[in-house]
Batch of 4 targets.
Target 1
Amino acid sequence: MTLPDLGPFPGAPGYDKAAFLDESDPLSHHRDRYVHADPDLIYLDGNSLGSLPVDTVKAVEGTIHYEWGDRLIRSWNDGWWDLQLRLGDKLAPLLGAQPGEVILSDSTSVNLYKLALAAVEAYPQARDRIVTDDLNFPSDVYVLGSVARQTGRTLEIVESDGINGPVEKLTNVIDRRTALVSLSHTTFQSGYTYDLAEVTRLAHEAGAMVLWDCSHSVGAVPIDFGGADVDLAVGCTYKYLNGGPGSPAFLYVRAELQDQLANPIAGWWSHAEPFALDLEYRPTSGIRRFHTGTMPIISLSAIEAGIDDVLDASIHAIREKSIALTEYLIEECERSLQPLGFEIVSPKDRNRRGSHVSVRHREAWPINLALIKDAKVIPDFRAPDTIRLGLSPLYTGFVDVHTAVQRAVEVVKARVHDQYAGVVTTVT
Ligand SMILES: *Cc1c(COP(=O)(O)O)cnc(C)c1O
């Protein structure tokens, strides 16, 4: 079944405001820098997999045809060897980091493991606690659990109300037994954004290190590791940075800490003289200490155009539009979706909210499928009953938001979702 009307819906309340906001949007021209294969599709899942930047296609083609095809192994000396450092330096201003503090390599989960283990092992055994919360991404909790088991420590998962970061409870839990505090800066489910400086200070006052996962912030929410004195951080590049599926994640280590920590996955790329091919491991200094093995060059080459576009737009302009988009979406949800049984489960305080808004509904799973299959709206579903609506300021407009909400209204009113009640898919 396909919906008869895909909109736009100029007759519906809220449309004029959206049209006005689009007209006065200083970032509207960025939209054409991304591939829109289906002009009717409204993509609200850039917080899970960002869109393809047009320039990325050319960049990857160049890497494949020229650097690999033509130049072959000579390319290692023509820029490949340092590509993860060069891109890390390029990303650094978006993190409030200095050159030489960031690399792009491996996945977020692997980087988290490396840094969490390195941090915990820097403390005496008496510091036997790792602290996180129940809003953290499950993979992060699994990784921190492995680190705790392997180092004879305990992982404490502080309980929240399901939406907001449990800052007060964290204040009570973080103490002199804590080695490491590791949290998502913006949480994947509700979109709650922690005050980076506040929680970092809490950890430091207790003598512990912090390890932030900024997967749902980087490229959407301004970050200042330097200003907040953050020790360690990781994050995805395939969400708001649009680096492509499984693109190498970032890893940040504050300069002063780099030579004090040991990389638990010591590989030849972190050796002082990798081409000495010595059987004895001697770690190099600086951020290269956190390298492990050969970098995925083709995937790295796909990241640069996305970072460039965020830098070009400026993270502050992106944040301003992101707040306007989420505020507008919340207004539309309150007006049109709440009467149909939806509940907003993201923070109402704009300063504590990232760039997505989550709504809950008893029939969220089939509604989400109907939106994708019949209404050309792609949000995502998170078990058991949440639909996340991700707003990527570089390519999402206000009329897009209005249209998506109106299509959802039509889906639910016509009960289009009834046909999907029992359907199962691998990826949600
Ligand atoms: C998306 C996300 C990840 C993904 O990790 P991968 O190793 O790339 O699969 C990890 N942590 C958080 C907080 C995320 O949002």
Target 2
Amino acid sequence: MDKQLLLNAAERANTYLEALNDRKVAPSAKALKDLETLRIRMPEVGIPSAQVLEELDHYGSPATMASAGGRYFGLVIGGALPATVAAQFMAAAWDQNAGMRHASPLGAAIEEIALGWMVDILGFPSSTDGGLVSGATMAKLCGLAAARNELLSRAGWDVEARGLFGAPELEVVVGAEVHVSLLKALAMLGLGRERVLRVEADEQGRMLTSKLPPLGPLSILCLQAGNVNTGAFDPAPELCALARQAQAWTHVDGAFGLWARATPNKRDLATGFEQADSWSLDAHKWLNVPYDCGAVLCREPKHLHNAMTAMAPYLLSDTPREPSHSTPEMSRRARGVEVWAALRNLGRRGVAELIESSCAHAKRFACGLEEAGYKVLNDVHLNQVLVSFGSDERTQRTIDNTVSEGVCWCGGTVWRGRKAMRISVSSWATTERDVELSLASILRSAERAIEPEPNGSPAE
Ligand SMILES: *Cc1c(COP(=O)(O)O)cnc(C)c1O
């Protein structure tokens, strides 16, 4: 191995990160144009490693979205803690196949430890185990596959062997504000994107318990812990109890929201979800590990194993725990390394502080926007802020102005028929100063978004 090469990579990565707060968050048009230089014919002859790195840095770095910095508030992205970036460097050098214990005892062990800590910090039943996958969408696919397997198996049907043809019909119940990724997972599982019962939600996007249809032993109830727009939580204590009585399966989509359970000051928001049968969440969002990493967790790990194993369930021995028995892949990277590094680095207290500081920053955004006279559309209890700047057109112009000013990056959404800017605070790197700079930029952008009257005087 070329020592200079790796040191060079570390040096370049460090230079990149140091400059992150002094550049526009979105890449410039020039940077994107320059990136096209890389689009050459498949080269006949290679170039030395150092030159590969040089090209990547020269054309790649400026063309990145500065989402690793402190002023990216788009989607629900999160940054990457320094300890996790360094750990990923190590993991790349190790190049372990973590899918199979015999291929990487280290990969299996570190995933086991990381998942155990996750279950602990999230306060799930001690029987809980699962797997690390590429993200919450994949985790949903796994959780729902476990549900499909177990409910049909109780009805005398082996879905892995016989498929869904002629199987008893499962009924999937979702909230009106279900995340599209859950529908995608249902589509991939043959359960149908449109064959769902949608339960009416309140103005924050929470499922209304009174509108829940009767559930039965073939029902899969999908709850949300953290609506992607409002950050609101479905009323889990009542809903989980009803599902239990009906012997239905409850799956929780908690991509970012379940992390509220990791801090005493926010735990009440996400209480009751521990009653569910399976959970999907991300580590690459609020836990701030590098892409990509999510987790599926299952109260009874054997339900997940039955759905994921490549072998007949009766051949399974799960001691010692076999990583590929909990996820779709055979071969995969050792995602446990970065989750382990994040939790080892932060400890229980550090995770709580990360969650709380994000929520405090979101509160500050909401207060500043309201003080300036703009309408915050959601109850800001968590890390998500939805704001309207008047008409949909003015809101869109405010978003466009904000992005082009480049101090921060916020995207748009539609909430209950109204265009909104969505601000998601999910990064360890965001400071109070970042929030003040960003708020000032958003307010400037909103001012500039006022429609000019034909005679030149500004009006809404
Ligand atoms: C981000 C998000 C997803 C999708 O997660 P990926 O990690 O991108 O697959 C699903 N549900 C919710 C609520 C989310 O916030």
Target 3
Amino acid sequence: MIPFVQTYISGNESKYLNEVIEIGHVSGNGKFSKLCQNLFKERYGFQRCLLTSSGTSALEMAALLLDIGPGDEVIMPSYTFSATANAFLLRGAKIIFCDSSSQNPNIDSESLEPLITENTKAIVIVHYAGISCEMEQILELCEKHKIKLVEDAAHAIDGFYNSKPLGSFGTLAAFSFHQTKNIVAGECGMLAINDSELINRAEILWENGTNRAAFHRGEVDKYTWTDIGSSFLASELSAAFLWAQLEELDTIQKRRVEIWNIYDNELSMINSLEERSTPQVTKKAQINGHIYYLVCSNENERNELISYLRAEGIYAVFHYNSLHKSPYFKKSYGGNELSNSDRYTQTLVRLPLFFNLSNDQVYYICDKIKSFFNLT
Ligand SMILES: *Cc1c(COP(=O)(O)O)cnc(C)c1O
């Protein structure tokens, strides 16, 4: 069976984990956390990076930092993971779901503006599959209506829009290093802060509302509770694992993009079939090889494709169930119909994509898909 994902191991993970054990600093904000944070800062130009215990906690920090509270509305796509919504719901915000684009599962920048009210405090975007949203239109709207932008960049490491790294557009951006992502560290994430005025407070919220970071730098003489917060920081065990992966970032990305491109070349003929498509990448977006997916014509066909591939030894999976129709949210949802979001819920299938997937396996998968669609 060709699995759907397999964890890439660079080989230095256990070496760095042992180093952490020897140093004895196993809690957060030590040597490896700093190495990882600096790498992101240097490589992508984020103003400040803080490693967190998950992508989810980075989103929770974002909601806290923007002072989201009851009465505030936060607009986001429905076609995403529950974590995107939970972080803001936990602060008491009202979630306004926006439809996906007809081109790809990203938030539809055309449907955004009518959802904006005087209570809109933030727009949260997800760069689905690591393919950038329409940043020019979205930034223009945020500017015009004075709304903060948060990037859920969980898929988006090393993706770009107009040569600018994803995660550098929003006031804040959340990355994930969960096992299912391009770069993994068990459960781990990162908040990128692109507004210098939020950096001090971010450091404080990160360590349970204390000024521990400033204390350790010798900037204050007392270490005390100064704000609300939580234990958001990642342990050095995660950071050490992450560092071993980050040393191979270029190698990992190169291979993933290679695989993505083979899929895309081999399967592009699917676009000649009505109502079926491969990922539509807008001109300015540069892919990062996170997810390769196909859109089928209907739910039945999608499920048949998944079963067909499974019988051929290929593990393909569907993806998000739109949040506005989820068992948790549907009772309280009173918004618009989100037809594209519903369509991706019913028709999208993700293909295996991981570092150790061989070219032969990718061609094998493509051949099976072509025969399913009678394209050979
Ligand atoms: C993975 C993911 C998250 C959450 O990341 P964790 O590190 O698992 O907490 C949030 N949003 C999206 C879109 C994701 O895919």
Target 4
Amino acid sequence: MPDYSKITIEPVQPSWLPSSVHLDILRLDKLHMEISGNKWFKLKYNLLAAKEAGQQTIITFGGAFSNHIAATAAACRDAGLTAVGIIRGEEISADTNATMAMAAANGMELRFISRSTYRDMQQPGHPLHQQLLQEGYVIPEGGHNAAGAKGCEEILQLCPASSYTHIICACGTGTTVAGIINAATAGQHVIAVSVLKGASYLETEIRSLLRQAPAATWELDTTHHGGGYGKINEDLITFMNKFFLETGIPTDVIYTGKTLMACAELLNQQYFPDNSRILMIHTGGLQGNRSQPPGRLSF
Ligand SMILES: *Cc1c(COP(=O)(O)O)cnc(C)c1O
């Protein structure tokens, strides 16, 4: 079990933050290098459920750069569980990139399969999925299930959550943000920044994991994906490098860099009233920065 005492809350004052607004960063990225940030919270109750069901093997899904795959491999190694990663793409191998290499080094069995088989395997009714269920405990791609969201409800317990008016968090499958919305209180507004293009379907995905009537209000921001998932332009790199220079906080190219950039743009559009107190959840993902050429990021 990772050590929560490593998580810090850091007030920051980047040059784009007006003095009338307060911004804190909840540094989940500090939890663990491999079981990064939000991924631990999504795995926690899934691993417990597997244990309770007497299962020794965890099977899950992801792409070649998946933080979820990296985290599952490391968490299973720590918990003494066998891990199987179903990886989207036949052309990929264990030495394709640092994420795959790390997952394999942590003992995960990697199975590289075609995109269509990958899709089929995830369908609960499909024979290929049924086959996986015979092998072990199956966690959906990105840990997107009720157990995943339940773990993410605990994120807000790590900070004085009630002191914030706004909470901003990156959104891939929507599991993390669903847990945060469930745990947030009346009067708070949660902003889920989608890093995927055209992802209005996430609204339904998030809603499917919400309690009956969450106390907080929320919205899905579909306009700050920066070109789409994994699209990394120079503006983003410049923003991230400057943010690091001004605050000492590293961000990742897929999720947290874009989320902070969204925050800066929303501030610029006067979205946040004076005296807003914003909490940005740093969901981690720094291992993914190894996909960048050396020197592109200044950290
Ligand atoms: C996976 C990931 C997310 C997205 O989390 P979801 O629960 O899938 O929405 C956000 N930030 C980072 C750093 C991630 O690795």
